[in-house]
Amino acid sequence: MKALMFGWEFPPHILGGLGTASYGLTRGMSVQDNLEITFVIPKPYGDEDQSFLKLIGACNVPVVRKDNSWDHVNERIGRIMHPNEYFWYRDHIYYDFRRIVTNELGCIDFSGRYPDNLIQEIDNYEAVAGVLAHSLEFDVIHSHDWLTYPAGIFAKQISGKPLVIHVHATDFDRSRGNVNPTVYNIEKRGMDIADHIICVSNLTRNTVIEKYHQHPDKVTTVHNAVDPVPNVEHFKKEERKDKLVTFLGRITMQKGPEYFVEAAYRVLQRTKNVRFVMAGNGDMMQAMIDLAASRGIADRFHFPGFLKGSEVHQMLANSDVYVMPSVSEPFGISPLEAMQVGTPSIISKQSGCAEILEHAIKTDYWDIDAMADAIYAIVEYSSIYKTLSDEGIKEVNAITWDKAGLKVRSIYNRVTGR
Questions:
Q1: Taking a C-beta distance cutoff of 8 angstroms, is the pair 348, 362 a contact?
Q2: Domain of 182: which CATH number?
Q3: Residue range of the domain that includes 377
Q4: Which of 148, 171, 194, 224 is the most exposed place for a label (fewest CB within 10 A)?
Q5: pTM, to two decimals
Q6: Strand order in 54-57's β-sheet?
Q7: What percent of the chain has pLDDT over 70?
Q8: Taking Cα atoms as reference points, which of 29, 36, 5 lies closest to residue 401?
Q9: Is beta strand 219-221 parallel, antiparallel or unpaired with respect to 301-305?
Q10: 135, containing H or E segment
């Protein structure tokens, strides 16, 4: 079976959990027999791991026919795409996309991020999907998150192949209910046209059924997992006097950073030997710096900014407690990553991973007193810390992407009639 996947991020260049989940799932599926995955992203950098799939950069697929020599194409994009592949795509342009601004290769310059003109980039990505749908052989289309639904729909309309969409989050999660109608309409149209919908948690599945009016039989939960940490034994806790409690993620209203600061204030009223880290960036970062200052705890707070790769695992390993106080978290991979390196996790009950984790402490995101009590208990009582650490490692090591991949494969079989 051949799957054409549309995504928006792929490691090592990621901005959030979407890229991590896309990588984990495709790698987990790669161990299956008779499955080939072609994964499309807006902008690759050439250092992505392609040992288990084929990666295509939308920015290297021409949508407008322009005359270029083989040598010129090779000079421009040969490091990432073979020129012969470029010319193959150029020969399969069947629509007039001259309304789109392109470069001298007839390709679109994507940012590879989430720019202010994101809707325009989504539309342009859809155009690339049209060329790929005419150029490639595939049995099923798989679109990750709302940004790629239009691309998946266009590929389905051209090829007649079934479309599976993967809901990693909805705008109800990102906006705390203040939904952007443009985003909602893209999400709704994708769900309506899809042959099947995968959700990363029952929490998200319920939202899809209730808020987007989808039939329950069309919606399946496939919980996320976590990749094994390479050389996990190398990540050790540094010796220090103070305990360390960490928030790691986008500093946005969806993630509930203000509840973390308020819980920290309550912990520091009971003990002074604790420091707090808010790692990441986002539109609420300055507000959180100001909130910590207004509570008189700025000297116990650290804002290291965005971390990536091994920096994430070292930060989590250094921590005595990891806290994810998300207001609405479709899944949440970071607590699993923390547990891998032996760090106890406190997670909100409003998160998808709360559905599968037994050895994490769960509180309502708004219950800052319960959150503070849990933090205090872990940093003060070594027996609680050790139990959560040891049992957490055992539990999370059994949550693997190949199991999630088998569930996705069964959905592929269902929609393709195999």
A1: yes
A2: 3.40.50.2000
A3: 232-396
A4: 171
A5: 0.91
A6: 54-57, 36-41, 2-6, 140-144, 163-167, 196-199, 219-221
A7: 100
A8: 29
A9: unpaired
A10: helix 118-135
Vertex 335 angle, CA 277 and 356, to 5°: 155
Rounded distance between C-alpha atoms, residue 273 and residue 241, angstroms: 7
| Domain total of the chain | 2
- Closest CA relative to residue 199, chosen from 415, 414, 35, 407: 407
What percentage of the chain exceeds 90 in pLDDT?
92
Q: How far apart (Å, rounded) are the C-alpha atoms in residues 313 and 223?
A: 22
What's the longest Cα–Cα distance across the chain? Answer: 71
Residue 143 CA to residue 84 CA, distance in Å, equals 26
In this prediction, residues 196-202 reach a mean pLDDT of: 98
By residue count, the chain amounts to 418
Same domain for 240 and 211: no
Average pLDDT over residues 118-145: 98
139 and 9 within one domain: yes
Residue 228: predicted pLDDT: 85
C-alpha to C-alpha distance for 415 and 105, rounded to whole angstroms: 37
Q: Say yes or no: 86 and 107 in one domain.
A: yes
- What local confidence, expressed as pLDDT, does residue 310 receive? 83
Separation CA 166–CA 37 (nearest Å): 15
3-state percent helix, strand, coil for the chain, nearest multiple of 5: 45, 15, 40
For residue 290, what are its two tokens?
């100001």
Tokens of residue 134, six digits: 């005419």
| pLDDT tens sequence across 60-81 | 999 999 999 999 999 999 999 9
Q: What is the DSSP letter of 330?
A: S
